[in-house]
Write a structure and sequence with these properties.
By secondary structure, the chain is of the alpha/beta class. Helices cover 39% and strands 14% of the residues. It has a 4-stranded parallel β-sheet with strand order 2-1-3-4, with helices on both faces. It is elongated, with a radius of gyration of 20 Å.
Length: 177
């Protein structure tokens, strides 16, 4: 049996020659309803991105990471195990290595620890990467107050990067459930 992608059908087809029908269907189902909106999404450039300084404490987090790199302190990225967590962890590893960071990563076992950073993960990081002084979360951490406090008690600095809302109940696969 041959595998194939199944995608929701779209009520209103735009029939844009330059954009494959399956892409039009996906974009339409995500709220892009005109040719112009779809083209803008597909052909965006770096100038269309939001200013990162608008995010709360983004400059402070960047300064902490820069300081850790300059002082040759160990950085461990704690990523989630879902698609956006793994991709952001990989991107972070590549970027920080290019910047000369002493960087490692840790992704917890979803069946043992569930979602995101936790106390057990902090202990594993300190055991596996004892030179860690800074933890950088990717796709998790916003709701992990207990684990963050625990990491701070252990003398670690924590920078959280997470697209979830602080009060959002997150189980299993982050935003994908």
């Amino acid at each position: 049996m041959k595998n194939r992608w199944i995608y929701p059908k779209v009520e209103k087809k735009l029939n844009i020659k330059e954009i494959p029908e399956v892409v039009q269907a996906i974009l339409s189902n995500r709220g892009y309803t005109t040719k112009e909106e779809m083209e803008e999404f597909l052909n965006c450039d770096i100038n269309s991105l939001l200013d990162t300084s608008l995010m709360k404490n983004a400059d402070k987090g960047a300064d902490l990471i820069i300081s850790a790199i300059k002082n040759n302190e160990g950085i461990t990225i704690v990523g989630d195990y879902d698609c956006d967590g793994v991709c952001s962890t990989a991107f972070g590893m590549i970027t920080l290595k290019k910047l000369g960071a002493d960087v490692n990563y840790y992704v917890n076992d979803r069946f043992i620890d569930g979602y995101g950073i936790n106390k057990n993960g902090v202990d594993c990081i300190l055991k596996q990467f004892p030179n860690t002084s800074l933890i950088l979360t990717c796709d998790n951490g916003i709701a992990a107050n207990e684990a963050i406090d625990y990491a701070k008690e252990k003398g670690l600095t924590v920078v959280i990067t997470d697209h979830h809302e602080p009060g959002e109940k997150i189980t299993g696969g982050g935003c994908c459930n």
